[in-house]
Amino acid sequence: MKNEKNYAEQLKEKLCYKPVNAAEKLESEELNTADSFCEGYKAFLNDCKTEREAAEYFKFIAERKGFAPYEKGKNYSAGDKVYLFNRGKAIILAVFGKKSLAEGVRLTAAHIDSPRLDLKPNPLYEDNKLALLKTHYYGGIKKYQWTVMPLAMHGVVILKNGETVKVSIGEKPDDPRFVITDLLPHLAGEQMKKTLAEAISGEELNMLIGSRPIKSDEGGDLVKLNILRILNEKYGMTEADFLSAELELVPAYPASDIGLDRSMIGGYGQDDRVCAYPSAMAILDCAEPEYTGVCVLTDKEEIGSEGNTGLKSSYLKYFIYDIAAGQGLDGRDVLSKTECLSADVNAGFDPTFPTVIEKFNAAYLNNGIVVTKYTGAGGKGGTSDASAEFVAKVRRIFDDNNVVWQMGELGKVDGGGGGTVAKFIAELNVDVVDVGVPVLSMHAPFEVVSKLDVYMAYKAFKTFFESKD
Ligand code: MN
Ligand code: MN
């Protein structure tokens, strides 16, 4: 009798909801698969620190896997693979399914931009024989986190003649790096009285770029001039070319395993490359699905999905309209049957900061991907709030295919808030819910995720693309 569960235990098993811990549940074979999947992910994080680099990377891999540029008006059949590259900053990958597009598409949407520091249009100046660059932060950052760490500069300079010069300084072992200085504690009496939000202001995020002047008997700003000389030698640019450049400052260090057990990954820009990479790999590995699969990897989410490379733009809608027209269908009819996993991160529970979450509805590392029914702030302001019907369907698909997943809210009610691209997808009359990886230190220059959750994201998106119902 002792081995038998008592009545309460039996009832508990039958009736109570208990999230699964993937680290406890998974067999060693799948743990190994997860760990090796993450090796590719870390390499991707190190190769792609900006939206342009990520879009370029996915285009390259897609072409190698047989994806061709989408041609409007061309007749596509099941198994055909296409991509649409949007201005070098966003990309749509699609695999045509066996079913007609009249049944809708299976869509995932992740973003490949991350919080960072952009250079101002006219950034370079000299002050007391030090040359510096003025920056303008992009996305929601804690500004003090961006001082006193090695920075790399990535991006493009478009010369007046239209020629594109690609810039990447600070990634190779012998490259120089850059830094934003902070005040020594000995003299920080006034600064230390300020709030964290005020301690470092936007105009104090000035990046050190040089200190050695050109040898000359006359003239000022000789340190700045020397920097311009080096830039001109290396890239053929002049100071005015900064005006038509997009140069982004990102952490110069690589991603690495975190923990003695190597169970986690630390690195820059995991919001949202930790969903972009698994969703892209899922569609790339999708042979001939029932439904047409579409994976959009978009830009500008961190500043509200604005601009023609963000999801407030019509580029995704136009693509769906065009493939619909290819099958003699109305785009709106395809969209209204479409289902979407908005692939974005949520906050993971952090034992050091337990008071900001509500423990029954928080996401935990290693409990698998987190399904977030709604984001927003206050009384669900600014969110699409997925329907119970669609959540039920996603839940069934994941459970039937051994995807470890959990449900999560973003912190306490009235504790703050946030949003994703889900609401812009919902505006297209698409069923959508947020599904992503829980992250510690989200939006910091070094974010932490669990390897098992990253792998579960891949499994979830692949299952979704390949699902038959
Ligand atoms: Mn995000
Ligand atoms: Mn974000």
The CATH topology of the largest domain is Aminopeptidase
The ligands found in this model are:
manganese (II) ion
Name the beta content range.
15-25%
Low-confidence sequence ranges: none
**Overall radius of gyration:** 24 Å
Q: How large is the count of helical segments? A: 13
Helix content: 25-40%
Side by side, the strands of the main sheet go: 1-2-3-14-4-15-21-17-19
* pLDDT averaged over residues: 96
Question: Any idea what the CATH superfamily of the largest domain is called?
Answer: Zn peptidases
Give the number of DSSP strands: 23
Which structural class matches the secondary elements? alpha/beta
The outline comes out as globular
- Please give the CATH class of the largest domain: Alpha Beta
**Spatial separation of the terminal alpha carbons:** 44 Å
Query: How many distinct domains?
Result: 2
CATH architecture term of the largest domain: 3-Layer(aba) Sandwich
- Major beta-sheet overview: 9 strands, mixed
Summarize the structure.
The protein has 469 residues and is an alpha/beta fold. It has helices at 7-15, 22-25, 28-47, 51-64, 189-193, 196-199, 222-235, 270-284, 315-326, 331-336, 388-400, 422-426, 451-466; strands at 68-69, 81-86, 90-95, 105-111, 116-127, 130-138, 151-158, 164-169, 179-180, 206-210, 245-251, 256-258, 264-267, 292-298, 339-342, 346-347, 369-372, 376-377, 405-407, 417-418, 431-436, 438-439, 447-450. A 9-stranded mixed sheet has the order 1-2-3-14-4-15-21-17-19, with helices on both faces. A 7-stranded antiparallel sheet has the order 8-7-11-5-6-10-9. It has a 3-stranded antiparallel sheet with strand order 12-13-23.
